Design the sequence.
């Protein structure tokens, strides 16, 4: 790993064999992720991306480094095809290929030189710069309101599903009980139906 | 005393180096050097010491290295002060950048005994005092120095002094000035009447050299450049006399430390002209007079005797980035830079801050994740002090720092949020909530394991509802980002000098 170029190339390789997961339940730990993804290959490293401005009720996200890019691709396509549950149902986790910007230990791109200059208030472009700064603020506000809206929708969906689940469960319980107390058998006799023994 | 256990203690993490004397009262074994995590430390090296709960390390000079009876590795250091440590006593004295002050006098704050594991790393401190006893540093050395000092701070009188006393903490001030490479230091224990110890003194210096070359090539190179600048800064008559006596063969010179009581020194030399690097030998005063190091109780431990080597390495590791962030935030040193190029690496942000503000900082890009805005890169920057952080923020507000791709950098303070216990993740329903009474074992397993959903389950249907919801959200985000990018492009059209 001598030259910056070689180092960067090695890093790019690492990006290629890494999968980004999100919508992970807060209860999920490093070990859970490892076991969950070890069915697709060898997990080399799991890193949860810290969220320093924790917005409430957001799932965790993590970078999972696999042994080779093939395994990483397999995870992405598999999880896209079948909803993948990790320590909770029915909301699935998502997987996508990792991006360079997701790594906090990314090396600097070789050959790039950072340049910057100061604009004084009397500079003709100063106002534009200020405007861009204000835009940044506005955009952050927009993003946070959209996030709020999204979280609300998710909450609604969860509630609705919970109701559905409850109703479903009630149905099963009713079936259970009519079988248990013999009602089902009585009814079957009455209507001259045969009940399979493997109930 | 070190005897049997010593072999167990040897690993790549820690090794004792050259032995020194044995304390007679406390039965401690002194050492001249040791290796910690592959780095060789010798007496009078300057080191960074980790203090828990502090984001800045303390800097001190190793003046004693010893192993207690209970095999606790201890070091005694004489402290250096950062100007901020003693800002109440600075008066009109203006410290230069990187300038620190050596402690002197008698009183609290002069020196301390610490666990050896508190050492974080070596610290390159160069003395720029014009004192005749101080070998003047070369340009190269000054450039390489992490810190410089030219003054001392008397902890008793609480004064900044330009002149150095003859002794600090009972040690000749020469030991605190710059060293010359040909002044290899050896502390000879009083009881040892013969210098040719089992290791063979002739081998020791060369071995030291080798190890050091491996461990710190830069420093070694630096040291090489020092050799040949010649002139040894020796002030005491004794030193001069000894030097004269030895200059005949030019290979050996001696240095006396710790000595007011000259009659009691036993000075011996081994004439070994084949040693290429000349040695400088420091003799310690008899150990009988050694004071009990302050602040350390030599408890005759019992548990620790059985297990002499406790793995303390994790205790004094560099604090994690999260801890550093939290501390920096509490102290007001933390600034969030926004509107950076998202592709910047952390090192590039550090370079940028250096270019724009001439401040050495620690920076880290915030990792891009699900809810990061793709067009804005953000980074946390930890400044050395609150004042610098304030200055940077106000400069970024008052003026505009634009990057090459015309991004005006924004600097704000944003508070970190710790783990929120009340936060929950919606969308995970548990049957346990409904059916409390008979939750079967398999059921519990099914919840906690990970699996792909099969299409014939209710779970699958619900999962698809989530996927749909997610798609919808993604589309919203994409729209928003596109709109925002467009706004940025519009705003940038007005730039005259792109």
Sequence:
């Amino acid at each position: 790993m001598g030259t910056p170029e070689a180092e960067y190339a090695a890093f790019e390789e690492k990006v290629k064999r890494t999968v980004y997961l999100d919508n992970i339940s807060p209860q999920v730990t490093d070990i859970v992720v490892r076991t969950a993804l070890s069915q697709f290959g060898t997990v080399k490293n799991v890193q949860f991306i810290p969220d320093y401005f924790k917005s409430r009720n957001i799932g965790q996200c993590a970078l999972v480094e696999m042994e080779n890019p093939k395994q990483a691709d397999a995870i992405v396509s598999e999880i896209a095809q079948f909803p993948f549950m990790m320590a909770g149902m029915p909301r699935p986790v998502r997987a996508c290929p990792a991006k360079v910007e997701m790594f906090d230990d990314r090396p600097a791109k070789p050959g790039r030189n950072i340049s910057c200059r100061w604009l004084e208030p009397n500079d003709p472009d100063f106002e534009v710069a200020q405007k861009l700064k204000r835009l940044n603020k506005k955009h952050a506000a927009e993003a946070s309101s959209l996030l709020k809206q999204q979280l609300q929708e998710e909450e609604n969906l969860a509630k609705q599903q919970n109701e559905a689940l409850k109703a479903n469960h009630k149905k099963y319980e009713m079936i259970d009980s009519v079988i248990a107390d013999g009602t089902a058998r009585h009814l079957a006799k009455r209507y001259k139906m045969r009940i399979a023994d493997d109930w | 005393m070190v005897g049997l256990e010593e072999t167990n203690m040897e690993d790549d993490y820690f090794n004792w180096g050259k032995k020194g004397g044995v304390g007679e009262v406390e039965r401690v074994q002194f050492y001249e050097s040791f290796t910690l995590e592959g780095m060789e430390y010798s007496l009078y090296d300057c080191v960074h010491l980790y203090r828990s709960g502090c984001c800045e390390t303390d800097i001190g000079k190793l003046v004693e290295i010893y192993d207690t009876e209970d095999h606790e590795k201890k070091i005694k250091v004489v402290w250096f002060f950062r100007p901020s440590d003693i800002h109440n006593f600075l008066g009109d004295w203006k410290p230069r950048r990187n300038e620190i002050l050596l402690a002197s006098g008698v009183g609290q704050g002069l020196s301390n005994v610490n666990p050896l594991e508190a050492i974080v790393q070596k610290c390159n401190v160069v003395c720029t005092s014009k004192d005749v006893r101080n070998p003047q540093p070369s340009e190269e050395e000054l450039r390489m120095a992490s810190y410089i000092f030219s003054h001392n701070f008397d902890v008793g009188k609480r004064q900044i002094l330009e002149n150095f006393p003859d002794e600090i903490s009972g040690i000749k001030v020469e030991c605190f000035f710059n060293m010359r490479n040909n002044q290899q230091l050896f502390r000879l224990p009083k009881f040892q009447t013969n210098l040719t110890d089992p290791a063979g003194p002739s081998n020791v210096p060369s071995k030291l050299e080798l190890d050091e070359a491996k461990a710190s090539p830069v420093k070694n190179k630096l040291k090489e450049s020092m050799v040949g600048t010649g002139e040894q800064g020796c002030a005491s008559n004794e030193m001069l006399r000894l030097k004269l006596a030895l200059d005949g063969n030019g290979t050996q010179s001696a240095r006396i430390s710790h000595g007011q009581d000259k009659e009691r020194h036993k000075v011996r030399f081994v004439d070994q002209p084949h040693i290429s690097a000349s040695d400088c030998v420091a003799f310690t005063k008899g150990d009988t007079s050694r004071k009990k190091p302050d602040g350390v109780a030599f408890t005759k431990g019992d548990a620790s005797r059985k297990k002499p080597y406790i793995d303390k390495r994790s205790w004094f590791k560099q604090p994690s980035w999260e801890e550093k962030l939290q501390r920096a935030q509490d102290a007001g040193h933390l600034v969030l830079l926004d509107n950076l190029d998202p592709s910047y690496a952390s090192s590039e942000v550090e370079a940028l801050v250096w270019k724009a503000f001439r401040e050495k900082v620690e920076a880290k890009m915030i990792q891009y994740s699900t809810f990061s805005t793709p067009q804005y890169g953000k980074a946390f920057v930890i400044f050395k002090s609150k004042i610098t952080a304030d200055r940077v923020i106000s400069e970024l507000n008052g003026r505009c720092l634009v990057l090459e791709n015309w991004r005006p950098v924004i600097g704000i303070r944003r508070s970190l949020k710790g783990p929120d216990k009340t936060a929950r993740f919606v969308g995970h329903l548990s049957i346990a909530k409904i059916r409390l009474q008979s939750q079967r074992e398999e059921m519990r397993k099914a919840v906690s394991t990970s699996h792909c959903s099969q299409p014939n389950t209710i779970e699958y249907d619900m999962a698809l509802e989530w996927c749909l919801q997610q798609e919808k959200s993604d589309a919203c985000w994409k729209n928003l980002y596109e709109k925002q990018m467009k706004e940025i492009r519009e705003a940038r059209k007005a730039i005259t000098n792109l």
Q: What stands out?
A: The mean pLDDT of chain B is 71.
